[in-house]
Specification:
Elements: E1 28-30, H1 36-49, E2 54-56, H2 62-76, H3 80-83, E3 95-97, E4 101-102, E5 105-106, E6 111-113, E7 120-123, E8 133-136, H4 145-157, H5 159-171, H6 174-186
Parallel strand pairs: 1-2
Antiparallel strand pairs: 3-6, 4-5, 7-8
Length: 187
């Protein structure tokens, strides 16, 4: 078994306390309801208590989901130097990122952040008296081109499809690091 990068190891006090937990099932977020504030609280609860959830009745055609997932897979399968060409930084918080920390421990995930409307203007600080604004602009990788195209197509069609796009892009590859680390441990 190989060595684990210490950046991925949590201090003992922050590690999960193992216990047998009986669960009824994966949290379901049903978008057929028009109550958006209820969706927000359900997503917050599921994220806090489970770390994931399943979205149902979203109206996204299977073909659209396959195309979105295919584009995301192509992007995240690129070599690291290619993905880092669109890395977010201090100036632009949008783009690729793979060094997020939770409790000072590196997360085993990659993300690609973007905004729906580009450019998006936001306050520079949370201070209500600070009137300075900041403009955010998406940055897109050259490959795969369908990543940008599919995003623009969804943006003009259906926001529930866009929600699924966000979830896929941000969450589908959390396991990628886990899988690669397990492969290293086997060797």
């Amino acid at each position: 078994m190989g060595e684990v990068d210490p950046a991925f190891i949590q201090d003992t006090q922050h590690r999960p306390k193992l216990a047998v937990i009986e669960a009824e099932g994966i949290p379901l977020i049903d978008l057929s309801s028009a109550n958006a504030s209820n969706h927000v609280s359900q997503i917050a609860d599921a994220s806090k208590n489970w770390g994931f959830f399943q979205v149902i009745n979203h109206g996204v055609p299977s073909e659209s989901r396959r195309k979105i997932e295919g584009a995301a897979r192509k992007f995240f399968a690129l070599p690291l130097e290619e993905k880092r060409k669109v890395s977010r930084d201090e100036v632009n918080p949008l783009g690729y990122f793979d060094s997020e920390l939770t409790k000072n421990v590196r997360d085993w995930k990659e993300v690609f952040d973007f905004v729906v409307s580009t450019p998006t203007v936001i306050p520079v600080s949370p201070d209500p008296d600070d009137k300075e604004l900041k403009e955010l602009t998406n940055q897109w990788p050259q490959y795969p081109p369908e990543l940008r195209y599919k995003f623009h197509q969804l943006r003009h069609n259906n926001y529930s499809e866009l929600l699924i796009f966000f979830v896929l892009i941000e969450l589908i590859y959390i396991g990628r690091y886990v899988k690669s680390m397990l492969e290293k441990w086997k060797n």
